[in-house]
Design brief:
Layout lengths: L5 H11 L5 H9 L3 H10 L11 H18 L8 H21 L15 H9 L11 H14 L2 H22 L3 H24 L4 H7 L8 H10 L1 H9 L4 H9 L1 H16 L10 H25 L4 H7 L6
Length: about 325
C-alpha cells in the first residue's frame, strides 16, 4: 500500500517546481501595469496564444490544465469532488438568478465541473432538480422558490452558501483521506468566522448568522454568533480561545489582513503534505495550491486593472505553497 501513489506523487513533486513562490508573486506585483502582468504570466507559460490578452480566459485555462494533469494520472476523481463543490454550487446560484431575473449578462459559470453552466441552466429552467446530486437538491428547491417569489438575491446566496459549507463538511467527515478531513474542517470554520465578522460590521441579526453558519468541530457557531452581536472585541476574544487565535490578530490589524489570514488557513492546512511520500495527500494538496495560486493572481490582476497601489495589492495577496 505504501507504493500506491508513488508515481503520482513523483509527478506532483516535479510539477511543484513550477508553482509560484512568494518571490514570483512579488515580481508580478512589481509589474508596472495590467498589460505587463499578463505578459509576465505568458512568459511563465500561463494560458496560450489564444488567451494571452484575456485574463479571465487565461485563468480558466490554468484551472483546466490542473484538472487535466489529475485526469492523466487515472486517480479516482471522486477523491477531488469536495474541491469542486464551491464551483458546482456557484453554477446553481448563477443559474437560479439568471432564470428568475432574465438577466443573462452578469452570470459567470464554471465549466470544468460535473454540471457545467449550460447544463445547470437547463436543469433550473425545467425545475428538474432530481438531476442534481442529492446533497444539492434541498438547497436548489429552497433557493429557487425564494428567488422566484421574493426576489431576495441575498437570501438566495445565504441558502446556497450554507448548503455548500454543509456539503464540504459532510464530504470531509466521510473521507478516509486526512487532508480532505482537515481541508473541510478548516474551510467551514474559517467561513463561519468570516460570516460573523461581516455580520457584525453590517449589524445582521443572530437569526441571519445562524442561518448562514455551518456546524463544525473547531468553532462553536452559537458562541461565535453571540460574540458577533456584542461587537468586534467579543469576536476577537472568542477567537483567542480557539485554534484560530491568529485570526484575532489579523482582525485587529485590518480588514485586508483578516481576509488574507482566512485564505492562508487553507495553505497552512495542506503544507504538511509536502512531507508525505506515498499517499494521495500531496496530489490533493497540489490541486488546492494551484487554486490558491490562480486566486492570488486574479487578486493582483484586479488590483492592477483598478489602479490600486502596489502596497495595497500586496496586503491582499495570499501565502504560497512553495
Amino acid at each position: 500500500m505504501s507504493e500506491l501513489y508513488a508515481y503520482e506523487v513523483a509527478r506532483i513533486r516535479a510539477l511543484e517546481v513550477s508553482l509560484f513562490s512568494d518571490a514570483t508573486i512579488e515580481q508580478l506585483i512589481a509589474c508596472p501595469n495590467y498589460e505587463e502582468c499578463l505578459a509576465f504570466l505568458a512568459e511563465k507559460g500561463w494560458g496560450s496564444t489564444e488567451t494571452e490578452d484575456n485574463a479571465e480566459a487565461m485563468l480558466n485555462e490554468e484551472e483546466e490544465k490542473t484538472w487535466q494533469v489529475i485526469r492523466e494520472m487515472h486517480i479516482d476523481m471522486d477523491n477531488f469532488d469536495v474541491l469542486t463543490y464551491p464551483q458546482l454550487f456557484h453554477n446553481l446560484k448563477a443559474a437560479i438568478k439568471e432564470v428568475c431575473t432574465d438577466d443573462t449578462d452578469i452570470h459567470i459559470y464554471y465549466e470544468d465541473v460535473d454540471i457545467p453552466g449550460k447544463e445547470m441552466l437547463e436543469i433550473v429552467r425545467e425545475h428538474d432538480f432530481d438531476k442534481l446530486p442529492k446533497f444539492m437538491q434541498p438547497a436548489a428547491n429552497e433557493a429557487f422558490d425564494t428567488m422566484l417569489h421574493t426576489g431576495d438575491g441575498q437570501l438566495c446566496d445565504v441558502i446556497i452558501d450554507k448548503a455548500t459549507l454543509d456539503s464540504v463538511y459532510e464530504a470531509g467527515r466521510a473521507s478516509k483521506e486526512p487532508i480532505i478531513q482537515d481541508y473541510a474542517e478548516s474551510t467551514v470554520a474559517v467561513a463561519d468566522i468570516k460570516i460573523a465578522v461581516r455580520a457584525q460590521m453590517t449589524s445582521k441579526s443572530i437569526e441571519f448568522m445562524k442561518r448562514a453558519m455551518a456546524e463544525c468541530e473547531s468553532v462553536n457557531v452559537d458562541t461565535l454568533a453571540k460574540a458577533a452581536l456584542s461587537g468586534s472585541d467579543a469576536i476577537r476574544d472568542y477567537l483567542l480561545s480557539t485554534s484560530y487565535a491568529e485570526g484575532a490578530q489579523a482582525l485587529e490589524e485590518s480588514p485586508s489582513a483578516f481576509e488574507r489570514w482566512c485564505d492562508n488557513q487553507i495553505i497552512e492546512t495542506i503544507t504538511p503534505q509536502k512531507y508525505n511520500a506515498f499517499t494521495l495527500g500531496p496530489v490533493i494538496a497540489y490541486v488546492i495550491a494551484r487554486q490558491n495560486e490562480i486566486k492570488t493572481v486574479r487578486i493582483i490582476l484586479s488590483g492592477k486593472l483598478n489602479g490600486l497601489p502596489d502596497d495595497s495589492i500586496r496586503e491582499r495577496v495570499r501565502e504560497m505553497y512553495v
